[in-house]
Amino acid sequence: MKVFCGRANPTTGAVEWLEEDENYDYHQEIARSCYADMLNDKDRNAKYFQGIRAAVDRVKERGDRAIVLDIGTGTGLLSMMAATAGADFCYAVEVFKPMADTAVKIVEKNGFSDKIKIINKHSTEVTVGPDGDMQCRANILITELFDTELIGEGALPSYEHAHRCLVQEGCEAVPHRATVYAQLVESQRMWSWNKLFPIHIQAEDSEKIIVSPPEMENCPGAPSVYDIQLNQVSLHDFTPLSDVVTMFSVDFSKPVSRASAYYTVHLEAIKSGKAQVVLSWWDIDMDPAGSIKCTMAPYWVQSTSEDIPWRDHWMQCVYFLPNEELVLQGQSVGLTAFHDDYSVWYKLQKGRNEDATTAIQVESPVCRCQAHLLWNRPRFGELNDQNRTAQYLQALQKVLKPDSVCLSISDGSLLPVLAHHLGAKEVFTLESSAVSHSLMQKIFNANHLEDKIKIIEKHPELLISSDLEDKKVSLLIGEPFFSTSLLPWHNLYFWYARTALASHLTSDVTVLPQSASLHMMIVEFKDLWRIRSPCGTCEGFDVHIMDEMIKNSLDFRESREAEPHPLWEYPCKSISNPLKILIFDFHQTVPEHTIKNEGIINLTKTGKSHGAVLWMEYHLTPSISITTGLVQVSNEKGYCQWTPHCKQAVFFFSSDTGSEPPIDNPSAVAYTLSFNPKTGNVIMDFKLLD
């Protein structure tokens, strides 16, 4: 059966109704899921198996039957581990129906159908009794309900219900406990992901400074954690102000409460500095003694940085304090962690005497300035990048004239302010949403520009001459940045906007950027290949059916799609030279015909061809370009350096044999890439050649 799905096209800006297979949504969920990453996480799987064996042994030593409840079973892997370890029966709960159906097949293929019952329900809907889903309560509780923040996938409500309704009092639990750790740091780089720094502009007669509005200065920020691969952050990027401290633990073998709670730890500053950021992670003990531990600790905390297990489903957390606070070496401060059902946040209290009980009144941080609603964390970093701003200033100085009528098209961009301070006669900015309109108004007000720059809240095609005070635009500018963009070419919406505005432009209009180009390079990933790599067998269990399910979902459309990844977090090496593939000329309107290029890219270095990376470059002037991708082909470690402000597009080459591509040692890759102006999509196809 086919269904019509409405969605906004991020490149063209149009709302489209597309006919999709009724299974489209779940294919998308499976294709972009972490299942392969988890199955390839050997450390996680081995520790779970050890913990499950130990839990079953403890129950058997008491002379009891081992009855297991496995919540969030996924493939059924942990239940099969329990059955292998000697469990008498396992109830495996999985709410996602396609996954539950697959688990049934995997359990059957591995010969455990008589020991494992798959229950396709949310665990809070599972019933116990003669006519229920479970004949009796379980005495072993196994779960994998964790995300990077530990509780973000609803672990607390699920545990609370399980202890109340589904497991025996005093049950064994795998994992047995989780412990959350934190470290207070100063980091200009990380703080730049949360606040807008002053921007200095050297105009002809004086220096101008763009300041952020008071609402932004005092805003606690976005409520969500920023989860990243902290192992890719250099020690030069932060200064620890405290030792690592234990914030709180959760014992999963005892009743768990979903109620909001807080935990205060008093610590002594080991160095003077600005307390800005809390870095946090957790570990899980698979047994009561804590002898089987799975840790997310970053490299500087671990005893050896060699062979730290790589995983993408669990990373580390960056929390921004509501305000930066100066702490002095030796000073006692209180760090409080709060949590509700699904999230954690932090507050710093200076001095031991402050009444920590007042902290319980603090609610989860909510953005009040609107900047954190419009700009994500990398976007803050991008706006704070002084070198990037300098390139735009240099380019604007080349094209601006005293009589320039300037129109800016980007979401919440500071280019209109730059243009005004550099001497543009008139400046307009087109904001497509009420949020970006409101935010820009606050920024203009804070810089006394409310009567200098006119905000137009309209989509480009709806603009009329009176919006521009009956003037023609002689300088059209954009970064471009649009908050709806996911893949690098989605910001080509600027081109569609420029096309819609053609009647409002002078015949000799200057467009900045003047053009854009799509670039590509073939790479070998250090680890990221694992998220799309078939597993085959996992801890001795056959999970080929899962591999096939993921492959079918990836191949659900006629052609595979590229996916966005912030490659500064995922080391890779180039095995080809970078190549310019497509060019987009913004002096012209969007053409009706497809823009296409095909050819062969030679592999100049040895390595595994895991995939192609694609990114955009925007050419502001003939001599000034901004990259959204590659910064340096090889750094001191031999890895590519990528801009940290944008996600790059990754097209993984199809693989049926683990990390090896279909051809063991390809010498070249044939490619076909085309940009369809009607849809705004980049269609790509690759073939590895001997």
UniProtKB/TrEMBL annotation:
<dbReference type="Pfam" id="PF06325">
    <property type="entry name" value="PrmA"/>
</dbReference>
<dbReference type="GO" id="GO:0032259">
    <property type="term" value="P:methylation"/>
</dbReference>
<keyword id="KW-0805">Transcription regulation</keyword>
<keyword id="KW-0539">Nucleus</keyword>
<comment type="function">
    <text>Arginine methyltransferase that can both catalyze the formation of omega-N monomethylarginine (MMA) and symmetrical dimethylarginine (sDMA), with a preference for the formation of MMA. Specifically mediates the symmetrical dimethylation of arginine residues in the small nuclear ribonucleoproteins Sm D1 (SNRPD1) and Sm D3 (SNRPD3); such methylation being required for the assembly and biogenesis of snRNP core particles. Specifically mediates the symmetric dimethylation of histone H4 'Arg-3' to form H4R3me2s.</text>
</comment>
<comment type="similarity">
    <text>Belongs to the class I-like SAM-binding methyltransferase superfamily. Protein arginine N-methyltransferase family. PRMT7 subfamily.</text>
</comment>
<feature type="domain" description="Protein arginine N-methyltransferase">
    <location>
        <begin position="514"/>
        <end position="681"/>
    </location>
</feature>
<dbReference type="GO" id="GO:0005634">
    <property type="term" value="C:nucleus"/>
</dbReference>
<keyword id="KW-0221">Differentiation</keyword>
<dbReference type="InterPro" id="IPR029063">
    <property type="entry name" value="SAM-dependent_MTases_sf"/>
</dbReference>
<feature type="domain" description="Protein arginine N-methyltransferase">
    <location>
        <begin position="176"/>
        <end position="349"/>
    </location>
</feature>
<keyword id="KW-0808">Transferase</keyword>
<dbReference type="InterPro" id="IPR055135">
    <property type="entry name" value="PRMT_dom"/>
</dbReference>
<keyword id="KW-0489">Methyltransferase</keyword>
<dbReference type="GO" id="GO:0000387">
    <property type="term" value="P:spliceosomal snRNP assembly"/>
</dbReference>
<keyword id="KW-0677">Repeat</keyword>
<dbReference type="GO" id="GO:0005829">
    <property type="term" value="C:cytosol"/>
</dbReference>
<dbReference type="Pfam" id="PF22528">
    <property type="entry name" value="PRMT_C"/>
</dbReference>
<protein>
    <recommendedName>
        <fullName>Protein arginine N-methyltransferase</fullName>
        <ecNumber>2.1.1.321</ecNumber>
    </recommendedName>
</protein>
<dbReference type="GO" id="GO:0035241">
    <property type="term" value="F:protein-arginine omega-N monomethyltransferase activity"/>
</dbReference>
<keyword id="KW-0963">Cytoplasm</keyword>
<dbReference type="InterPro" id="IPR025799">
    <property type="entry name" value="Arg_MeTrfase"/>
</dbReference>
<keyword id="KW-0156">Chromatin regulator</keyword>
<keyword id="KW-0949">S-adenosyl-L-methionine</keyword>
<keyword id="KW-0804">Transcription</keyword>
<dbReference type="GO" id="GO:0044020">
    <property type="term" value="F:histone H4R3 methyltransferase activity"/>
</dbReference>
<dbReference type="InterPro" id="IPR014644">
    <property type="entry name" value="MeTrfase_PRMT7"/>
</dbReference>
<dbReference type="GO" id="GO:0030154">
    <property type="term" value="P:cell differentiation"/>
</dbReference>
